[in-house]
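User: Predict the structure for this protein chain, please.
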Amino acid sequence: MASRESTIWVSLYDGAFGRTLRIDLQSLAHAKLLRAMFQSLHDGVRSSLKLLPDELWSFDGLSELVLTTIPRGIAGAHEVGSALEAKVDWRMSLDGWESCLELLAPLIKEAEPGHQYLTEERKGYVLVVLAYLEPRPARAKERG
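Assistant: Here is the predicted structure, written as structure tokens:
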């Protein structure tokens, strides 16, 4: 198993504001990778990115994360599938991905622990939180 510092943790759980997707970045390299992903979606280089657990990405509470650029419609993240095979479908407009880039920029520049809410709290949607260099809350999977 990869160490916490070498892994980007993505957790789906019941948070204070409802279903929450937390992306934990523990290094500048992780933040730059996520920035490159958001940039590729914003610039139209990619229209969709599908993330699965591997050596870099560790998932807790979900099996798949898909990031997609939409030309119109309601942006946000939705949980799809069953509790055992939960997937998150996160859709944003070009402006939405630009907003994510703007929210990520000060975390990279300051290189200090912090977090940003990348989506709004709305009924029926998953709240997406990005945590940078913050202690990751222990989840049942990690406690054994």
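Residues 42 and 94 are 5 Å apart (CA to CA).
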